[in-house]
Design brief:
Blueprint (H helix, E strand, L loop, with lengths): L7 E5 L22 H29 L3 E4 L22 H17 L3 E4 L12 H21 L3 E5 L7 H12 L4 H6 E4 L7 H11 L3 E4 H6 L6 H15 L6 E4 L28 E4 L4 H9 L4
Parallel strand pairs: 1-2, 1-8, 2-3, 3-4, 4-5, 5-6, 6-7, 7-8
This protein binds a DNA duplex (15 and 15 nucleotides) through helix 3.
DNA sequence: GCATGTCAAGTTGTG
DNA sequence: CACAACTTGACATGC
């Protein structure tokens, strides 16, 4: 007996059983190359990643997986302090742009949503100036890439606790204003598994006017006085208020041995029943990647 | 082929 | 104090 669902499910970052690979390079491995060789190497990787993204979307379309989270290292070392570059520096610049415009068109035509979830180093609420600067640069890089592929969302966490949650939320709000208007328009914020609960994130979300992405596994690790129904409702309201033209995002994962770590697959019982009437995208965070999404979707119509 | 060490970056909790 | 965890291990090297 299959449950009828309005949800759509998404894959995060990588494929496990299909020949789609996103490649990276380390600073150490290009530091002995001259500038021209270095840019050729990086260009090759950026083009390879672009082609793989396009091919990956075609596989997702076949599998009826309607959302994909793009790896933050898509343009490797783009904001590295020693080896940063501009896209126009790259040997294959035109081919990269052309391929990414195909990605954008393919995703739009087939209604596949694209998003980002920048690395743990991206913390605009940090008390350290350098961390804030790096984070802003990294977010602006994501915004550039988001524009090229037509991604809808760049989703981050609030940050560490530092002196107090309320001081950190204030600093986040202050530094948010330093982001470009384009970045402000695409940024979302998610509850985490150790510090900031849905109630905290909803507070920040209301202050600065960006949507709240609800991760129900994090809520279970790091509960507050909100029920899952109430947290869901606040998430939906935030999207309705601040991005009414977009569907909300949820995250799902199942815990491994009852711990914080992610399991290979999703236990379908971890998806609350009341989610199934909601038009939203659920990004699946599971080690078995697209196999986990496929298996999960078999439970639903 | 396989085992191993390393990778730009922050912050927290656990053992 | 070292290490794992976080949206994702990937890569080069040495045998």
């Amino acid at each position: 007996m299959k449950i009828k669902t309005a949800l759509q499910f998404g894959l995060c970052c990588i494929f496990l059983s299909h020949p789609i690979k996103f490649r990276i390079v380390y600073a150490n491995n290009i530091k002995n190359l001259n500038k021209k060789e270095r840019l050729r190497k990086i260009s090759e990787l950026c083009l390879s990643n672009s082609v793989n993204l396009l091919d990956g979307l075609k596989i997702l379309q076949r599998l009826n997986i309607k959302s994909f989270r793009i790896n933050s290292k898509f343009f490797p070392l783009y904001t590295h302090p020693d080896f940063s570059y501009k896209l126009t520096d790259l040997t294959d610049y035109e081919e990269i742009i052309k391929t990414l415009s195909k990605v954008k068109k393919y995703a739009k035509d087939n209604q596949i949503r694209l998003s980002f979830h920048p690395d743990q180093f991206i913390i605009i609420s940090s008390p350290h100036q350098k961390v804030i600067e790096n984070s802003i640069a990294e977010l602006e890089y994501h915004t550039l890439l988001a524009g090229l592929v037509g991604a809808e969302v760049i989703n981050i966490h609030i940050g560490g606790k530092y002196e107090s949650k309320s001081e950190t939320i204030k600093r986040f709000s202050k530094n948010f204003k330093k982001l470009s208007p384009q970045t402000q328009k695409i940024l979302t914020v998610e509850n985490d598994d150790v510090i900031y609960t849905p109630a905290d994130v909803n507070e920040l979300s209301s202050i600065i006017g960006i949507p709240f992405v609800y991760d129900i596994h994090h809520h279970r690790c790091n509960p507050d006085n909100l029920t899952e129904e109430k947290a869901t409702e606040l998430c939906l309201q935030s999207w309705q208020k601040f991005r009414p033209h977009q569907k909300p995002y949820f995250h799902i994962s199942s815990s491994k041995n009852g711990a914080r770590a992610h399991a290979d697959y999703i236990n379908p019982d971890d998806i609350p029943e009341f989610w199934h009437q909601i038009q939203a995208t659920v990004d699946v965070e599971a080690k078995a990647k697209e196999l986990a999404v496929i298996k999960l979707m078999k439970n639903f119509d």
